[in-house]
Amino acid sequence: xxxxxxxxxxxxxxxxSLRLSCAASGFTLDYYAIGWFRQAPGKExxxxxxxxxxxxxxxxxxxxxxxxxxxxxxxxNTVYLQMNSLKPEDTAVYFCAAGPPSLIATAxxxxxxxxxxxxxxxQVTVSS
Length: 128
Hints:
Blueprint: E1 3-7, E2 11-12, E3 18-25, E4 33-39, E5 46-51, E6 58-60, E7 68-73, E8 78-83, E9 92-99, E10 117-118, E11 122-126
Parallel strand pairs: 2-11
Antiparallel strand pairs: 1-3, 3-8, 4-5, 4-9, 5-6, 7-8, 9-10, 9-11
């Protein structure tokens, strides 16, 4: 059974940090590009970051550049999203997704429908 499971979401104060994890089962993550998306209430799902399958090329939304870092540990079949200097506008449900390995090279990583598998999401709340 193919499954992605996110974890690490929490309530954190502005300026704080969190690390989200995306663990895969039923398939091997290193054959896929892995993206992180987020969706806030009343807003569309937006791409946050992506890491490619072969060369670990990364991509970030402008709103998180310099604050978020995506990485992967193929031995653990897990992708991480380190989030620093969190802001209230980062509050959302965060999802990870697996898609074709060429998503960054073809500039399609921010398109949700290009991804094949999705996790159930983890809540991140940034508030004082």
